[in-house]
Specification:
Length: 189
């Protein structure tokens, strides 16, 4: 049977609602907390051969978000489950499936990696939206060499980078935003 691990550092009353949802899908629920941050994910996911480490973790302000870890959820069911969560009153932004790799990580590492990925995807979406907006502005006011140059720089970075650098991408977003703002101000005068 599928197992959903739920990390909720805010200890609000969402566990009851999640339990109701999981009953509809016939999934089991396991609550994990801050004290589990340095346990191996394999242990928390109840995988044979993983033992509890005799350590209790303290509060970590860097992992103050809810998180769902899905174990043994079939691919076709996973999409239905995630869509249901997306459209329900119980949306959780941070989630992952149990993998061969992350089962050997500590919960702290998994949460950190997941948060980095989540923040990176948000930034990529912001960049994409700003590029689209920039192109709309240029369609309305005419082509702009400076904007095109920054868009080319972003496209080059996104297609040729081997590892995503959040700070570099953020700087490129800011550069496009600044260039676009200057261009729009020029047309507004």
């Amino acid at each position: 049977m599928a197992l959903i691990l739920y990390f909720n550092p805010k200890n609000n009353d969402r566990e009851r609602r999640l339990k109701e949802i999981l009953e509809e899908f016939n999934y089991d629920l396991k609550i994990i907390s801050m004290k589990d941050l340095d346990q191996k994910v394999g242990y928390l996911a109840e995988i044979e051969g993983y033992q509890k480490i005799d350590i209790e973790s303290d509060f970590d302000k860097n992992v103050d978000f809810e998180f769902l870890l899905l174990k043994d959820v079939k691919k076709e069911e996973m999409y239905k489950f995630l869509d249901y969560l997306q459209n329900s009153d119980f949306y959780v932004e941070h989630k992952a499936g149990l993998t061969k790799t992350n089962k050997d990580w500590t919960l702290r590492k998994l949460l950190g990696e997941n948060d980095d990925e989540y923040r990176s995807m948000l930034l990529i979406n912001k960049i994409s939206s700003l590029i689209k907006y920039s192109k709309n502005i240029m369609n309305e006011y005419g082509n702009d060499e400076k904007i095109n140059s920054v868009i080319d720089e972003i496209n080059d970075y996104m297609t040729n980078t081997r590892s995503f650098d959040y700070e570099k991408a953020s700087n490129l977003y800011n550069k496009l935003s600044f260039t676009l703002s200057n261009t729009v101000n020029k047309y507004m005068k």
